[in-house]
Amino acid sequence: MDFSKKPMVEIIYRQSRIAKALGQPAKYSIIDFLLNSGPTSLDRLSKAIHRSKTTTCYHLSKLKSLELVRYETKTSGVIYWIKYEPELRGIIQALESYIKRAMKNIGSET
């Protein structure tokens, strides 16, 4: 038997990295806030998700590397927003729908 690792298909690899990021509450909160509030500053974002600016900046850098978040430097500071908003909104809505359905089913099983 050949137990050597086979290369993962690129799209599956990228999908799994995005799923992993969305599985982290701070990153999910950033995405959720940006989807609901639109482009915003680091200060406003860090206050909204109840994290320090340093921590928020760390999570934003990971989300930027996954191409989920974009930014622009302005005279007033850096502004962040969702890169592919319709697609990401669809993913978040699908997750919310799934969780609501799963929670409803859990309640009916007892």
Brief write-up:
The chain has 110 residues and is an alpha+beta fold.
Fold blueprint:
Blueprint: H1 10-22, H2 25-37, E1 40-41, H3 42-48, H4 53-65, E2 69-74, E3 77-82, H5 85-109
Antiparallel strand pairs: 1-3, 2-3
Helix pairs in contact: 3-4
Task: Write up this protein.
Residues 7-103 form the HTH arsR-type domain. This is HTH arsR-type domain-containing protein. The chain is an alpha+beta fold. Helix content is 65%, strand content 13%. It has helices at 10-22, 25-37, 42-48, 53-65, 85-109; strands at 40-41, 69-74, 77-82. It has a three-stranded antiparallel beta sheet with strand order 1-3-2. Strand 2 (69-74) and strand 3 (77-82) form a beta hairpin. Helix 3 (42-48) packs across helix 4 (53-65). It is globular and about 50 Å long. 13% of the residues are buried.
Total number of helices: 5
Strand percentage, roughly? Answer: 5-15%
CATH architecture assignment name: Orthogonal Bundle
The end-to-end span amounts to 45 Å
Q: Which descriptor suits the 3D outline?
A: globular
Q: Could you give the count of β-strands?
A: 3
The helix-and-strand class reads alpha+beta
Q: Supply the CATH superfamily name.
A: Winged helix-like DNA-binding domain superfamily/Winged helix DNA-binding domain
Counted up, domains total 1
Fraction of helical residues: 55-70%
The gyration radius over C-alpha positions equals: 17 Å
Low-confidence stretches: none
Order of neighbouring strands in the sheet with most strands: 1-3-2
Largest sheet properties: 3 strands, antiparallel
Query: What name is given to the CATH topology?
Result: Arc Repressor Mutant, subunit A
Instruction: Quickly name the level 1 CATH class.
Output: Mainly Alpha
Query: Residue-averaged pLDDT, rounded?
Result: 92
H and E string: HHEHHEEH
Organism: candidate division WOR-3 bacterium RBG_13_43_14
Protein name: HTH arsR-type domain-containing protein
GO molecular function: DNA-binding transcription factor activity
InterPro entries: ArsR-like_HTH, HTH_ArsR_DNA-bd_dom, WH-like_DNA-bd_sf, WH_DNA-bd_sf
